[in-house]
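User: Here's a protein and a ligand (calcium ion). What would the complex look like?
Assistant: Let me lay out the input and then the predicted complex.
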Amino acid sequence: MRLLIVEDEPDLLASLARSTRDEGYAVDTAADGEEGLYKALQSDYDAIVLDVMLPGIDGWEILRRLRIQRRTPVLMLTARDTPRDRVRGLDGGADDYVAKPFDLDELHARLRALIRRASGHPSGRVEIGSVVLETAARTVARDGQLVALTAREYALFEYLALHRGQLVTRTALYEHLFDEDDATLSNLLDVHVSNLRRKLGAEIIATRRGHGYCIEDPGTTP
Ligand code: CA
């Protein structure tokens, strides 16, 4: 999952970027409104953390312009917790908000919930045969036994599982799993997929030649 964080306070931006990367997200950052709006419109982020008070274009205006083109889930960082700000944020198309100062654990929990809702799996639990993904705990179990995955393997599996029944292109995987500073070689995706098949079962991920990958849903034909 890939996030954009738009925040003009350097220390807060750095700590948000560090802590969300520790949570396993690919993270892009923007330190002012103009850069934030540009990046928000440019890429298909899984969620955007958007500060309200920004120099140049403020968070409300970014949200307004973003919503004309994209439905990316947005978590607003409001200066104070006032009913007026809450109403304005929710009316403006924000999906959630936290008021400053906030607790990082709460922010992470809200982000996870936002991404789960947007993916259509509000419980965060996906069962694929004998394999069970729990996004809140970031665990994958097979036949009731936890399976040790690298951060990249987990991120890839989670993305495919939350889009179960859909063909996920390699391009989409690059866009959602790697951030703007990542210079990973493309063949690494194949390595991660083959590791996942070894750990979770050969049939878990289907390859669509020339197109991408798919975790099949018994109820749909992708
Ligand atoms: Ca600010």
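Summary: The pocket of calcium ion is lined by residues 8-9, 51, 53-54 (CB under 6 Å).
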